[in-house]
Amino acid sequence: MNQTNAIDAFAALAQLTRLDAFRLLVRVGPEGLPALEISRQLGTKPSTLSGHLSILKRAGLLKATRHQREIHYAANLVSVNALVQFMIADCCNGQIENCSEIVAMLRSSDKA
C-alpha cells in the first residue's frame, strides 16, 4: 500500500455510514453480505447506501460480486491488512515492544 492508496482509504472511511458499513463487513468476514442486508442492518435506504458502498469499493476496501440480480459486498481483507501494515510499518522507529498491544491483538486474531 502506498501513501495515495492509504489517503483514499481513510477518506472513504471518513463518513459515518461508510464506516459503519465497512465495520459490519469486516465483522462478517470474507463471505460478506448482499447490499439489501447491509441496508437493513444499518437502517439506511438502499439507494443512499449504494453510493457509499461504491466509494468504499473504489478505495479498494470492498469487493463486489453479482449474484443474479443482487450485489454482494465483502471487505477486501487483503487491502485492509495492507492498510494496517502501512500504518504500523514505521511504528516507534522499529522498536516493536512499544507496539505490543497492537502486535498482541494481531497475533490473537491470527489464531481465531
SS summary, helix count: 6
Distance between the termini: 25 Å
Tally of strands: 3
**Quaternary organization:** single chain
Give structural notes.
This protein has helices at 3-13, 16-28, 35-42, 46-58, 77-88, 100-111; strands at residues 33-34, 62-67, 70-75. By secondary structure, the chain is α+β, with helices and mostly antiparallel strands. The protein has a three-stranded antiparallel beta sheet with strand order 1-3-2. The longest helix is centred in the first third of the chain and has 13 residues, at 16-28.
Question: What order do the helices and strands come in, and which of them pair?
Answer:
Elements: H1 3-13, H2 16-28, E1 33-34, H3 35-42, H4 46-58, E2 62-67, E3 70-75, H5 77-88, H6 100-111
Helix pairs in contact: 2-4, 3-4
Short description:
It contains 6 helices and 3 strands; from the N terminus they run H-H-E-H-H-E-E-H-H. With 112 residues, it is an alpha+beta fold.
Give the tags.
single chain, 112 residues, alpha+beta, three-stranded antiparallel β-sheet, 62% helix
